[in-house]
From TrEMBL:
Cofactors (names): Mg(2+)
Gene: upp
PANTHER family: ADENINE PHOSPHORIBOSYLTRANSFERASE, URACIL PHOSPHORIBOSYLTRANSFERASE, CHLOROPLASTIC
Protein name: Uracil phosphoribosyltransferase
EC number per UniProt: 2.4.2.9
Purpose: Catalyzes the conversion of uracil and 5-phospho-alpha-D-ribose 1-diphosphate (PRPP) to UMP and diphosphate.
Entry GO CC: cytoplasm
InterPro entries (alphabetical): PRTase-like, PRTase_dom, Upp_B, UPRT, UPRTase/APRTase
Record text on activity regulation: Allosterically activated by GTP.
Length: 212
């Protein structure tokens, strides 16, 4: 697994506002959207392109365009939905699939409750959106699921990651034989006994949508 913690003043500024418990849901949603667009720029460095020839008003030129098959963006419900527009803004040709994962708050195990994805993801570059990489269980299961359907390149975009979660994702995905990258705005200190990231930003779904 490759970890990319994006070091940029705009990312750090927006993240600080997201962390602030006084930030309301409308501002939280807006800043999440902006932050994800900045992370998406880094996350798509490996996006596959094909060379093309085109005509400028002056001459023939070479260029590139995103190549087939279309990239797949997969928000993990519920909180990953708040990251979708920020990601597809930079990848407008992507297809979007949905994965509903819920964490049992006692066992902290993730299970799938919804899935709208093509059966065949052979050769697809997939971008998983999950704001909080906490225990890593949800992300590791989601990555395994996409790879079992043929995805051959996975990039997870997270607002925050905990060291414990990164370790688990590394352990559970290292045998998959597929490159896995985690792009995040920061790696925080640790998880608390309830599985929350410390210092973190609280429950991302609640902060985005204002309800538990
Ligand atoms: N999920 C969240 O929304 N926040 C955390 O801190 C951990 C998991």
């Amino acid at each position: 697994m490759r970890l990319l913690a994006v070091d940029h003043p705009l990312v750090a500024h927006k993240l600080a506002v997201l962390r602030d418990k006084h930030t309301n849901s409308a501002t939280f949603r807006q800043l999440t959207d902006e932050l994800v667009t900045l992370l998406a720029y880094e996350a798509t460095r490996d996006a596959r392109v094909a060379e093309i020839e085109l005509e400028t008003p002056v001459a023939t030129a070479k260029g590139v365009k995103l190549s087939a098959p279309k990239p797949m963006v997969v928000p993990i419900l519920r909180a990953g939905l708040g990251m979708l527009d920020g990601m597809t803004r930079l990848l407008p040709t992507a297809e979007v699939g949905f994965l509903g994962m819920i964490r049992n708050e006692e066992t902290l195990q993730a299970t799938t409750y919804a899935n709208r994805l093509p059966d065949d993801l052979t050769g697809r570059q997939c971008y998983l959106l999950d704001p909080m990489l906490a225990t890593g269980g949800t992300l590791a299961s989601s990555i395994g699921y996409l790879v079992s359907r043929g995805a051959d390149h996975i990039t997870a975009v997270c607002l925050l990651a905990a060291p414990e979660g990164l370790e688990l994702v590394e352990r559970e995905t290292s045998q998959l034989g597929v490159p896995v990258t985690v792009v995040t705005a920061a790696v925080d200190e640790r998880l608390n006994e309830k599985g929350y990231i410390v210092p973190g930003l609280g429950d991302a779904g609640d902060r985005l949508y204002g309800v538990a």
